[in-house]
Amino acid sequence: MPDLIHDGDSAAAVSSLRSAVMLLSRRLKHQRVDESLSPTEMSVLGTLARCGSATPGELARKEHVQPPSMTRIVALLEAKGLVRLEPHPDDRRQKVVSQTEQAEAMLQESRSKRNAWLTALAEGLDEEEWETLRKAAPVLEKLAHL
Amino acid sequence: MPDLIHDGDSAAAVSSLRSAVMLLSRRLKHQRVDESLSPTEMSVLGTLARCGSATPGELARKEHVQPPSMTRIVALLEAKGLVRLEPHPDDRRQKVVSQTEQAEAMLQESRSKRNAWLTALAEGLDEEEWETLRKAAPVLEKLAHL
DNA sequence: AATGGTCTTTAGGGTAGGTAATGAGTTACG
DNA sequence: CGTAACTCATTACCTACCCTAAAGACCATT
What we know:
By secondary structure, the first copy, chain A, is mainly alpha-helical.
C-alpha cells in the first residue's frame, strides 16, 4: 500500500500546516465581527447553523472543548440573545440549544466582514494560489473535524 | 479585472477556512511535544530554525504578537535552554536571539510527533484530499504571514 | 547637548480554557 | 422495587497566554 503521508514532502507539509494554522488562528482572533464574541462562540453558532440544534454535551464534543467550557459559552450566548435553551424532550438532565433569528443575522454580517478581511489579506496571493486554497478549504474543515 | 474573491464559492471557502483553522488550532494545542512549551513558543523556535537568529522585535512582528509577549516567550525559552540571548553588535538596545543545539533536537522530535498525530488524523482522508492539502500548505503559510 | 524616536522590559489586567467536585436524572441489576 | 453505577450539566477554582500602558535604556538628528 502506498504510504500517503510518511514521505518527506508530507512532513514538510505537516510542518507548514501547523505553523500556518497557529499563526492564522492568532490573527483571526482579532478580526471579530462583534467584539463581545469569542472565536469559539462564533464557531458554536456556525455549528448550530449547520446542525439545527444540539445538546451542550454534543457541542462540547464537536468543538473539542470540555463540557464546563461549553456550559459557559452557551450561557454567554444565551445572555446575548443568540441561542435558546429548552429542556430535552426525553431526558431531563439534558438541554437543547438552538440559535435565534438574531444569530442568523449576525452570522450573515460576520461572513461579509471576514470575507472583507481575508480579501484584503488574499490580495497578496495570485489567482492560482487562491484557487488552491479554495479547493483545500473543505478538506481542511473535514480534517479538523476528524 | 477578474475578482477572485468576492464570488459565492469564495465566501463559503472563507467561512470554511476560518472555522477549520480555529478548530484545528485548538486541537493542535493539545498535541505538544513538550508539555511545557506553548504553541507560540514552538512557532518561535520554528522561525528561528528558518531565519537563524533575530531580535525580539523582529520575532514579535513575525509572530504577530506584541513586543512584551515576545519578551516573556524569549525569557521562558532561555530558561529552558532552548535559545541564547546575546547583545546586538551595533545597537545596545536590542538583543539577538538564536536557538541552541538542544532546540534543534527538540524540533526534530516535535516534527515526528506532529507528523504521527496528523498521520492518524489524515487516515480519514483519501489520497486526493491529502494531495490537495499538501499543495495548499505552503499557500496557507504564505497567507498567514501576509 | 538635547530632544524625539525606537527597542525592550516591567507592571497590571483580562479572557478563555482546563480540572475537580456537586447535583440532578437515568439505567441496570439484584 | 430500590439501590448502585453511570451520565449530563453545572459550580468553583485555577492556569496559561496575550494585551495595554508606561518606564528605562539607548540611538540619531539637530
